[in-house]
Each structure stands twice: as C-alpha cells, then as structure tokens.
Write a structure and sequence with these properties.
The chain is of the alpha/beta class and 323 residues long. 36% of the residues lie in helices and 30% in strands. The strands form three sheets. Strands 6-7-8-3-9-10 form a six-stranded mixed sheet, sandwiched between helices. Strands 2-1-4-5 form a four-stranded antiparallel sheet, with helices on one face. A four-stranded antiparallel sheet has the order 12-13-11-14, with helices on one face. The longest helix is centred in the middle third of the chain and has 15 residues. It binds adenosine-5'-diphosphate and magnesium ion (MG).
Length: 323
Amino acid sequence: MIKVEHLIKQYGDRYAVNDISFEVKKGEIVGFLGPNGAGKSTTMNILTGYLSSTSGRAMVDGMDILEHPLAVKRKIGFLPETPPLYLEMTVKEYLNFIYDLKKCSLNRKAHIEEVCRVVKIEDAMNRMIKNLSKGYRQRVGIAGAIIGNPEVIIFDEPTNGLDPKQIIDIRNLIRELGKERTIILSTHILSEVKAVCDRILIINEGKIVADELTENIEGALRGNRRIAIRIEGPSAAVLAGLKKIPGIIYAEISVEHEDGSATYIVESKNEIDVRKPIFYMLAQRSWPILSLEFTGANLEDIFISVVDEAAETADTKNTKRRI
Ligand code: ADP
Ligand code: MG
C-alpha cells in the first residue's frame, strides 16, 4: 500500500531523513518509534505530500506522490503533529470546511455524521473548537483526517499532550480505525507502539534501525535486566560499589533524593540475578536499600541495542544516549 525507497531529506548539510526505505501492507498498523528529532515528522510530511524530499521515492497504492499528488492526497488522511484546527469554528463548520477542502463526494450530511459517530464527538457538533478539551480537539483532528474515507491514515504523535484517560481513548480509536484501514502512527513512547501497532519501525537520526513485528520487538532488545534501586549512602561511593559487582554491565544515578538517598538504575545480563550480591555489598558498608524494583525495557535500551554496538563500549557516548 505504501512503499518508500531511499528517501532523503536534507536541510543544508544536515540530514533530517537519511536514506529511509520501508513498505506498509494494506491493513497494517505500523508504528514509527523514535526520539525527538529522529525524522518521524519529516518522513510523514513527505508521505502525505506536505513536504518535498531531497531524493528518493514514495508511492501510495502504486502511485508516486510527486506524479499524482492529488490522487495520493485523496487516499491519505493525515493528522499532523499540531492539527490545524480553526478555533473560532464549531465542530460542524470545521468538518464541513474540510469536506469542501477535500472535494469529498460522499453524501455530506450523512458522511459527517458518520465520522462524528466513529470518533465519538456527536455531542460536540455545535460547540466551538476553542472551547473543547485537548482530547476532544484531537478527536476533531482525527475526524478531519478520516473525512472522505481515506484508505490510509497517518497520525503524527496522536497522543502527545493528552492525559492518561484521553490517551487510552485515542489509542482505542486508532485501533478501531485500523480494522479497516492502513495506518502509520509515530510516537516516542514504546508502550504506545506496543499497544497499538502490528509492526514497529524504529527510526533514529534519520535512519531506520529496526523493522520488527511487535511480538518480536522484545527479541530485538539486548536482553538485559534493569533494576531501579533506592539506596541510602554516599552516592559516588555507592555507584562505584555497584559498578564493581560482577554481572552488572551498567549503573547510573537517576535521582538524588532530599533525604540523602539516591535511586540508581542498574543493568545486568538477563541470566544473572544481581540482587543478592548488591544486598551483601551494601550490607557490608551499612548502606540500606530503601526499595528495589525491576523496570521494563525503555526506548533508550532499544536504541542502545539496535543503533550501534559502539555505544555500549564508549562510556561517554553511552551516558549521552541515556539522557
Ligand atoms: P521527529 O518528528 O522525529 O521529532 P523531525 O522530522 O521533526 O523529527 O526532525 C528531524 C530533524 O530535522 C531534526 O533534527 C530537526 O531539527 C530537523 N528539521 C526538521 N525540520 C527542519 C527545518 N524546517 N529546517 C531545518 N531542520 C529541520
Ligand atoms: Mg515530530
């Protein structure tokens, strides 16, 4: 359905997108996962025809977006990072405006009502957009994106800035929409792609560094265990002590607390349980453990595991990547 070949976007001598190629099949929900500045929005803006590429090709349903910009735009619904809502319009006015803009030929009233039903904003039809909550506004943006029944929908960070309840609602809505459509969404949150997508493309510094089915993404991780542990004691000495424990491959101070304790993040090889040696080392020096918990893999872990091996050995680089 979507085919991107060797896409490059340069700003001056900087690469925002550096030779990206991927395909998305009809009906797939694909997640673009990457930190800020990775090139997600740039790629999406090129795919939707809002931005031109420096080189490379993007095709939607067999059509090159440069050769058939209008036909391609008709196939794609786009929710940009900041949806261009007209705050002084009511929801109904806005959706009618988008309907006209897209030169939609479906039955106007019935279609707009249907779209509002799908995104659950029927009760807000006559309200001004400026008076709506962020979650509702996002729904209005999504409503705009699905007017004209596009086969493909592209969401750029659709849950950014929403509260937890709104995030769950929007994710459910995206999954619902994904039952009948091809969807690409971008996010910098690992749990989000895992919750919503069939496949995950990890993008970092303008390059795709992993392309995995969601169920396999854990396997693409380095397979380390991560523990967050709060310890009372002189932090530099505690950190040095932790780093000396066999099996611990990484340790850092994540938070210094006001009571003189600090929380450390410790990483060990999956097969080694370092909890006991940590306990004995600390007990010997009378540095009490206030709490200890396993934490899941986070995005940085994935980047470290897939971006390049050099990051694992170069300590300074390693630290930089984690911040
Ligand atoms: P993401 O959406 O993953 O956060 P973007 O695609 O917005 O990343 O940006 C990728 C890189 O391109 C960033 O380093 C950003 O600073 C740069 N960039 C984006 N737009 C412009 C622009 N108009 N001019 C110069 N650099 C840009
Ligand atoms: Mg972005």
